[in-house]
Amino acid sequence: MGNGFRHWYIDKEIPSYLASLAVADYSQVNMIITTPSHTIPAIIAARASDTNGVKAAFVHLPNAVNIFEDKYGLYRWNRVGYCLVPFNSGAMEHATNIAYPQLAIGNTNYESELMAHELSHHWWGDLVTCETQEDMWINEGMATYSEMVFLENMYDYSQYQSQLLAMLIDMVQFGNFKEQQYWAVSGVPAQYTYGDHVYKKGAIVAHNLRTYMGDSLFFGGLKYVLNQKAFKNMNSAEFQTLLENYSGLTLNDFFQNWVFNGGYPVFGVDSAVYSNIGTNVYQYKIYVRQKLHGASNYFNNVPMTIAFFDNNWQYVTRSAVLSGSLSVVTGTLSFQPIFEILNYDKKLAYASIGDSKVVKNTGNISFPNAKVSLNVINKGSDSSFIYVEHHYAAPDTQPNIQNGDRKYKFSNQHYWKVSGKLSNGFYSKLRLNYNGNIVFSGYGCMDTCLTSVNADSIVVLYRSKVGEKWREVPFVKYPSGQKAGLLMVDSLRLGEYTFANRNGYYVNVGIEENDLLKNYLELYPNPTSGYVRIKSNILSRKDKVEIEIYGIEGQKVKELSLHSMTDSIDIFELPSGCYFVNVKINEESNFFKILKM
User: Fold this and answer.
1) Is residue 7 part of a domain?
2) Is residue 564 domain-resident?
């Protein structure tokens, strides 16, 4: 330092865009950061009047360096450096001389998104950089994920999880509106190089990669990648190969689903079958449906957890691997569950997002991640456990067959499932928010398809379980006539809810069963591996029975006539999945849902 100039020398090769020069009447705050491996000088350049604010903002800088060395490997640079500049927002990861906004000092409010984020670039971006801008997620997605790693290890996992869920909700609700479609994180076009798919979706991908690999292999693999590619560039395919070389895992399904293709999976329990096969031994068979949110192909080999709850809300967790449109998960438990929840630990981030609450009192209760709230009028005789899951996919609408029902246009974007155990006498109203504006805060909204014809025709439909007919439930709309607002359902029940419109383009909301026949007809076994029989107490030889079978999307896949009630319905040739069977008796339709294993 001399004549008002500061000089520093960087002894490592860097990409040209990381070089920097800052000019001001700077003072500096000096630190010595000690890690298990070495000591590192740290210099934060600021105007003299800002040095106290710098000390407050960077109080956890030594922690951040130690956290990232533990997770990513040795800090390889000759100093840690930040330089305050008059940015209004954002920062820049110049190697050892990070440009840091002057407005972000005085407290730790920006320590994760700015201080830790930019520091982490000295591993992701400065040490190893993306080969092309189309793979910018390797730089920015991993740095955004590093914010969460900092929060987890500086504070606790709940802060990590809060940031993850906030990004996930934003992306599944608005990501495609903001950036025109659901982009893959690898191959993002130039105009979105620094957009949400790179930063937020990139961080979500990193989180899910950790879940797929497990902590030990994930963080060990990242250290290996950074060592192998230090001071070099890397593309997504090389990233995959290096992780596979280190871990011995096959990560092709992960990278194809999460990195090289866009969109998200949506998982939900279709049905659960429990059988008592011994003293305190219950076999479970869980049918898990996969739907898609902006993705073109089903996700395969997805690691999932299932939490099984007893009457006292205690639960045990079992692991599963899910692939395709329908997965059947089997195993045993020491008790018979009363309900089950996928991904209760939220270790996997996808387009089904849930919240749980124990309700002990009356009043308003919010489920912020699921985007609903309750107004509890009567808490009942005891506390209640309620889990609300928001699925960002079209609900199962059943085949579009005329059968005398009122017809609706369903939401093609989302629906909710409410699980849990309600105490005797529990009574609560359910608040569901809708937004059908064409443009809101600069981008579109999820319920536009329901309000474009007539905003007052939006309604709430309910069914207690998959396979039941949807029914309109009583609600009050606030404000009336507007394309965004609140639908207050009169009484919360366990089951599924979705929005629909009475007018416009229609699909059939429900499939009525004849009120008499539904008590005397049964299809069994269900689930089945190939044959289905009809059990009936009222059919005669004179009755004409015709069978029509429809796939989950409403397409007819098989039809036949039964000449005798002892005949079976043969569906051996159909793929595993969910089907709707129309049993037409003397031209009158009766619908049943069956599961083919």
Assistant:
1) no
2) yes
